[in-house]
Amino acid sequence: MKFKCPKCGTLIEGQPERCPSCGVKFKWKKPEEAKPNPEKPVSPAPTANPRSDIALMMVVKPAMAKYRELYPEDVIDDEEVKKIIVENVERDTDEVLSEIHETVLRREQEKAEAEEAALKEAEESKQRELESKKKPYYTFGMVAAIVTLVFALIAFMLGSAYVRVVASRGSNIALVNFLFMGVILASITMFILSLVRLIRCAKSMGAGDFDHFVERIENKEKPKLPVHLIFAIIDFSLLTALMIATFVYAYADIPAAEIIKELVLFLVFAGVPFVLGLVFYGQQRKRIQ
Q1: What's the pLDDT tens digit per position in 52-101?
Q2: What is the pLDDT of residues 231-275, one digit of tens each?
Q3: Under a CB-based contact definition with an 8 Å cutoff, are residues 38 and 72 in contact?
Q4: I need a surface site. Which of 51, 161, 187, 230 has the fewest CB within 10 A?
Q5: Nearest partner of 223 among 144, 111, 109, judged by Cα
Q6: Distance between terminal CA atoms of the chain?
């Protein structure tokens, strides 16, 4: 008699008590003990929990019926069949739990990678936003410095012109001379400060040194009015006072059209550069707000 072991599939000859490969115990019945109908109802092993008993019936009973179709009862008894089924169920359960564990780990890794990618994208987006503001920040700063440089020269030339007009009329007004000295000092100071600011902005842009800029962005610090613009305001105020004094002392008897012409020249050559300097500084200030 030859048959295959129902557990490991080893080909067995004769009627041994156990499988030589996996050790499954075989139960052999004598011919007189064999029943004509080998099929009989199989009851699962009693359990303390009715729900566990029902679950065991749902798993074991169909499996035992399948075993009985392949192997008669005199080859392997019911207890060994149950044992084999339970072992297979436990092995399958371990495999399922292992797959679930691997799935959880994989999803946690995917989640961590997604969060890392999101943080990286946010950082890159922040850097792109900073890059879009850095260059204009220093560009407007340089333009404002250039405009105040030009305004310093214009203020000096206009102040000299007003003094010459007063001197040509034979007047020697101490107020005019005092205002002109103030214009000269303010213009020289503004020129030097504007030149220094222009060089600093150009160097910072060329070297890519934006630490000061980034610090202000992160701290939301509002920039203070630059010193060269403070002197620009002082210079413009003194120049305006000098122009008014010149009109009072030297242009008292000239036609109104001539006065309007002088006012237009003052606004074009002094007022426009002064306003442009403030406008470009305002544009620079917006980059860190």
Answers
A1: 455 555 556 666 666 666 655 555 666 766 677 666 665 656 665 566 66
A2: 999 999 999 999 888 888 876 667 778 778 888 888 898 999 999
A3: yes
A4: 51
A5: 144
A6: 94
d(CA 212, CA 205) in angstroms, rounded, equals 12
Question: Could you tell me if 239 and 183 are in contact, meaning their C-beta atoms sit under 8 angstroms apart?
Answer: yes
pTM metric for this prediction? 0.53
H or E segment to which residue 2 belongs: strand 2-4
What does the alpha-carbon distance between residue 75 and residue 29 come to, in Å, rounded to a whole number?
A: 8
The per-residue DSSP string of 66-103 comes to HHHHHS-TTTS-HHHHHHHHHHHHHHHHHHHHHHHHHH
Residues 10 and 75 sit within 8 Å (Cβ to Cβ): no
Q: 25: which DSSP letter?
A: B
Q: How many residues does the chain have?
A: 289
CB of 78 closer than 8 Å to CB of 64: yes
Helix axes 211-219, 78-168, angle to 10 degrees: 110
276 vs 254: CA distance, rounded Å: 31
Torsion of CA 258, 264, 268, 272, to 10 degrees: 150
The residue-averaged pLDDT of 178-202 equals 91
Token reading at 265 = 């020249």
- The closest alpha carbon to 138, from 200, 189, 184, 85, belongs to 200
Cα–Cα distance for residue pair 128/214, rounded to 1 Å:
12
Assigned token pair, 277? 């300097």
